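Progress note, project year one: complex with nicotinamide-adenine-dinucleotide.
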Amino acid sequence: MATTTVERKLLLINNEWRPASTGKTMEVVNPATEETIAAVASADSADVDAAVKAARAALDGAWGRMSARERGRLVSRMADRLMEKADAVARLETQHNGKPINESRHIEIPAAAECLEYYAGWADKVMGETIPVKGNHLTYTLREPIGVVAAIVPWNFPLLLAAWKVAPALACGNTVILKPASQTPLTAIALGEIAVEVGLPPGVLNVITGPGSSVGQALVEHPGIDKIAFTGDTSTGKAIMRSAADTLKRITLELGGKSPNIVLADADIDAAIRGATVGIFYGKGEVCAAGSRLLVDKSIKDEFIDKLAARTKKMAPGDPMDPKTRFGAIASKKQLETVLKYIEAGKREGASLVAGGERADIGTGKGYFVQPTVFADVKPEMTISREEIFGPVLAAIEFADIDEAIARANDTQYGLAAGIWTRDIKKAHYVARRLQAGTVWVNTYNVYDTAAPFGGYKQSGFGREMSAHALEHYTQVKSVWIDLNM
Ligand code: NAD
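Model obtained:
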């Protein structure tokens, strides 16, 4: 498709839509068709400066003076407006990410709206305390916003992961500069449109598009930004942590994972097979918490793998815009190449390929599709067992007893999530307590709720998103002392 026919999208700074100061743009590609679907502004440090100026001014302006309840009402209106536009926003999410429209429309967009609604409710419930100190003083605390938050998000759940940051940040009275991934900027821009439509004051939510290595880096280094809320790759998180040290920014990091999904011998086998497939194939495996390491008791392994392979072979990628499709396109050409490289490593290192293993074609000869893939007989030292693939590739590993399962599960630098399948309640608790992971699912997988915290142990990051815990990361505490001596 010629770029002249594609829609041009601008930066949102101070409630004004403007091109990048350099005039540069970046193309957005639909991974299911390989067509260019939009050209977005490619910002640089001058645009970051302008956004920071607007965001700082908003803190001192109407937004800073607004009552918490009124702030909450505006965030709630964003949730309502998002649901009014859910069909259109879901189409954008599917077009730039390749996920099935069913997921965008019925899971991701409603979850993003729910997150906005949840934190809207918190806005006037974030409060301080009165403290019984020594002497004749009234001493109380104020929970104040941190200031300007840069929210930097990846391409796998572009709108939802933006909402996880924007909603608590705004509810707590901060201002935000949202930077979506280069591959998937369209729904962040839609969220910016919604902010303007519902009447968020200028500068409260700014949306800056551009490459992470330049614009993302400029945000991390900018002295006018107080906090970085980041979701993305562990190596990027480490680089951000180093750069943020110079200005001592607050940071929260939601990073990668290599999550174990453990099937004990007494599990409901059919439920565990469903759970194993949901765990790895939901979202094409481009899910930070994907259950990418399946640990199966060796006494049930053969039956389990046979049934799992049969079920996987029935799953085929399809046109993401078809409401019946449950498995879409890999989000980018680069990610497709990464996934295929890992599949080759699995074959080369001697794992048994029992399902998938090839690039797929949905009949158009276009698009970045790959077959859902399962490897059995994976050894813990193999590449596909150790590295995050971030794609629909499952590595099945056997274990001899429950303690070996726990040891293998924890034998990773990551600690984002884990699953356990068992009918024995004592074993469920025993394993849940020993797993080094921020979320443990028992007899289920990949379930989330805005009211429940989510985040990593170990190198999967720190800080919690969603729930009341996230409020800690968007407020700071001030102690006020008043001398009451007459
Ligand atoms: P990425 O780290 O390459 O990019 C994430 C974001 O950071 C993008 O907006 C990118 O432009 C920006 N960025 C890149 N370099 C930067 C820099 N030097 N400074 C500032 N910003 C920079 O990650 P990705 O490939 O987009 O996303 C995939 C990764 O995200 C996977 O590792 C996945 O596990 C992780 N992830 C984690 C969670 C979680 O909650 N823990 C959720 C989703 C994805």
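Residues 152-156, 161, 179, 181-182, 212-213, 216-217, 220, 231-233, 236, 239-240, 254-257, 288, 388, 390, 416, 456, 460-461 surround nicotinamide-adenine-dinucleotide (CB under 6 Å).
The first helix runs from residue 45 to 60.
No further modelling is planned for this target in the current period.
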